[in-house]
Amino acid sequence: MMTTECSIPAGLPKKTDSLCPECLTIIPATIREENGKVVMEKSCPKHGAFKDVVWSDAEMYKRAEMWAKDGIGVKDPLIKGAKTCPFECGLCDLHLSHTGLANVDLTNRCNLKCPICFANANQAGYVFEPDYDTVVKMLKLLRAQKPVPTPAVQFSGGEPTIHPRFLDIIKAAHDLGFAQVQVATNGIEFAKSIDFAQKASDNGLNTIYLQFDGLRREIYQRARGKDLLDVKMKVIENIRKVKHHPSIVFVPTVVKGVNDDQVWPILHYALENMDVVRGVNFQPVAFTGRITNEELEKGRYTLPDLAKDIEKQSGGLIKTTDWYPVPAVAAISELWVALYGDPKITLTTHAHCGIATYMFVKDPDHVIPVTRFVDVDSLFAELYDLAKKAGPKRIKAFSKVKAYRLLKKHLREDQLPDGMSSTDFLRSLSGVLSEETKSELARFSWRMMYVGAMHFMDSYNYDIERVKRCMIHYTTPDGKIIPFCAYNSGPVYRTAVEKQFSVPLAEWRKKHGDEYT
Fold it and tell me: What b-and-e string marks burial along 240-271, b requiring 16 or more CB atoms within 10 Å of the CB?
């Protein structure tokens, strides 16, 4: 395993700072092993002790942190001399990662009223919906970030597709140079109209992050307040008919006892539709309200729970050892900089924020994770060492041939799936490490399916070290950039931002009517 550079000590137990779930005061916390699980313990002088499971498998936790790596933050943070994370967001100079994916909330209105949603205009009593010019200003802020301009933007909400200028905003993001333009959506508008879907695609929409909680109707009734299964299937059908269609990524919110038995059926359904569905990104539920310790213990669902459920439900097609934490791939970005000089996005999220794997797909019942036939540990270790040895000098003449030879060293040829030759695989993948990246990656990716999971925090499992390394950020109308888990939980910047730039609900309805509020 490679030696990484992270200021968080490896191993258990360890100390961190967290928040009191009652008063949101910063309090010390201990993360330790208990009965094979990793728990966080903390105590507030006013509200007493709290304990929560942060990872349900201690060995997986320790393996993940072996890939931990700190980033370099941003070149010109808005908040300088910050002392208290997460109460000085902007970004501040305590933050260790640049923006990998930016969320831009277009509205807090929605055409649903989901019980598990972060944003709800009707419940809030006001409407937050920045106009077109404000949104463009927010997008320009992201593209001006240094050393790496934000490469991907995701429009969110509420339901972003009901913003009156949604299609114009998609085009503006495309024209500003975002490599990935995404929308997080319940899919209703895409299910209603192929024309709407085609216009979104024509304007530059790359990916539909489709809320997809399972294949049983009662799941949607319980989690979303309405049976939406036919809507989800109609989205797939309509996108399939769109010329140069965007890809779909299923985004299931996993709730223990509600749909945790659906994690493999969801992934299998994605495989059945992989002509348009290119990935699944699971999100274990975060608890945004106050709950009892008993409810917390009963309902907490962690990343190892997901990995184990997929292994069990798939009959071992995907094992817990096939998953890697997000910063494992940082070595690729570092080598790129060593090769070509220009800074690239480097995924330096906290090692316990998310996990992922890629699968080679022959058909929905025959999948093999790439980790089975590529020794990922040794490959990434060598990439990392190459990048570090280069230092300030560039690695010259790192041809596709050299990349091919490097990859071949770490290929388990006897484990390659039927129908895949080592030559074809290596030629395609070696293009990722050469200047022919784009065309070669396209050749390689058509038969690959991405599956990942991101566990966003709530006030019960809040770890400020995770906040400092977050790469999924929100940008706000007043020019701030705020990490996801600071915006939606903890000090709850979302409420403050929305109130500052909102219109009272009654005033909105008087002017616009009460649709979707």
Answer: eebeebbbbbbbbbbbbebbbebbbebbbbbb
The phi, psi pair for 184, rounded to 5°, reads -90, 115
Provide the 3-class DSSP secondary structure of residue 459.
coil
Nearest to 290 by CA among 123, 458, 125, 457: 458
**Helix, strand or coil for residue 343?**
coil
How far apart are alpha carbons 348 and 73 in whole angstroms?
10
Q: CA-CA distance, 330 to 130, in Å (whole number)?
A: 35
How many whole angstroms separate alpha carbon 113 and alpha carbon 286?
A: 17
pLDDT, tens only, 130-181: 999 999 999 999 999 999 999 999 999 999 999 999 999 999 999 999 999 9
| Residue 40 near residue 52, CB atoms below 8 Å | yes
Buried-state track 155-185, b at ≥16 Cβ within 10 A, e below 16 = bbbbbbbbbeebbebbbbbbebebeebbbbb
Given a contact cutoff of 8 angstroms between Cβ atoms, the answer to whether 313 and 483 are in contact is no
366 to each of 273, 363, 409, 467, how far by Cα in Å?
14, 5, 26, 38
Residue 418 to residue 361: CA distance in whole angstroms: 11
Token pair in block for residue 314? 């798939």
Structure tokens at 292: 């009892």
Question: What's the predicted TM-score (pTM) here?
Answer: 0.92
Distance between CA atoms of 468 and 277, rounded to whole angstroms?
Answer: 32
**Residue tagged 């540990």 (tokens):** 377
């998310």: which residue's tokens?
354
List pLDDT tens digits, range 454-489: 999 999 999 999 999 999 999 999 999 999 999 998
Separation CA 168–CA 209 (nearest Å): 19
Region for 48 from its dihedrals, namely left if φ exceeds 0, alpha if ψ lies in -120 to 50, beta otherwise? left
* Helix, strand and coil percent figures for the chain, each rounded to 5: 40, 20, 40
- The type of residue at 204 is G
Instruction: For residue 50, count CB atoms less than 10 angstroms from its CB and return exposed for 0-12, middle for 13-18, buried for 19 or more.
Output: buried
Separation of alpha carbons 517 and 509, rounded Å: 8
What is d(CA 358, CA 366) in angstroms, rounded to the nearest whole number?
Answer: 14
